């Protein structure tokens, strides 16, 4: 595979069993494709420093809500991390180096900062892929509290999550168990990349969109919707043989897809 060095590092990181993937390193390798001179070690050292400073501020009591309160005060009050509500779709919100440098991010990147800081003080937390909004929670059995890293570390209970979903979708939403299910490390990275993919597609930055889809397919090879999207991007870029291959594979996998008529029409145009 003729990958850039950043892509090679990303590929090597995700070849490990899911639980051994280092999310921070993988996220920095994602950023390194945008910033080729980025030094991941510089940001790993920054996490060491933040964790050491936080350790000094921890309460004597190991009660989870007290620890969350201490993390919140350190990240949001002392360091000034915040959700970027004014320019949510700025791609810099998705690059971990920018999030650390600018103290601004979106739910999933701020969640990653929070998770990594918490991990380093032996308070493990896990990502929760709620539809439309990413949360985290302590990795403690039977503890159903959630933390919204985008909103200053606000603590939520299940009922609060249901209300937040109803607000986001502007209609009553009944909470389903899968809405609050933990995500794997690969799913976490795929969600980060999917955010970037849609930002770049909206901006019509097709080469960068293609790069995000390629990395999603490294995480989850053969996913039909990503093959379709890669094929459509190839088509827009004028890479017609590659476009035809991906779109044909998509139809083979999902012959009755809702967009199958449009895809077949495109394949006919491409000589397939």
UniProtKB/TrEMBL annotation:
PANTHER family: F-BOX ONLY PROTEIN 21, SI:DKEY-261L7.2. This is SirB1 family protein. Belongs to the UPF0162 family. InterPro entries: SirB1_N, TPR-like_helical_dom_sf. Pfam families: TPR_9, Transglut_core2. It comes from the Bacteria. Residues 42-193 form the Protein SirB1 N-terminal domain.
């Amino acid at each position: 595979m003729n990958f850039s060095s950043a892509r090679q590092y990303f590929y090597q990181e995700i070849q490990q069993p899911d639980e051994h993937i280092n999310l921070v390193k993988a996220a920095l390798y994602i950023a390194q494709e945008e910033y080729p001179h980025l030094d991941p070690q510089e940001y790993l050292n920054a996490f060491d420093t933040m964790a050491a400073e936080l350790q000094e501020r921890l309460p004597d009591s190991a009660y989870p809500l007290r620890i969350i309160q201490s993390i919140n005060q350190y990240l949001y009050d002392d360091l000034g991390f915040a959700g970027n509500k004014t320019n949510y779709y700025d791609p810099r919100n998705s690059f971990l180096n920018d999030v650390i440098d600018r103290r601004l991010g979106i739910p999933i990147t701020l969640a990653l900062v929070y998770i990594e800081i918490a991990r380093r003080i032996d308070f493990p937390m896990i990502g929760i892929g709620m539809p439309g909004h990413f949360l985290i929670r302590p990795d403690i059995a039977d503890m159903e509290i959630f933390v919204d890293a985008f909103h200053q570390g606000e603590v939520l209970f299940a009922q609060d999550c249901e209300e937040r979903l109803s607000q986001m979708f502007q209609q009553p939403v009944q909470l389903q168990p899968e809405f609050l299910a933990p995500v794997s490390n690969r799913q976490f990275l795929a969600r980060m990349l999917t955010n970037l993919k849609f930002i770049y597609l909206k901006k019509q930055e097709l080469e960068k969109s293609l790069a995000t889809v390629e990395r999603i397919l490294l995480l989850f090879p053969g996913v039909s919707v990503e093959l379709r999207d890669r094929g459509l991007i190839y088509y827009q870029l004028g890479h017609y043989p590659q476009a035809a291959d991906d779109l044909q594979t998509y139809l083979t996998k999902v012959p009755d897809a809702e967009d199958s008529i449009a895809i077949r029409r495109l394949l006919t145009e491409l000589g397939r």
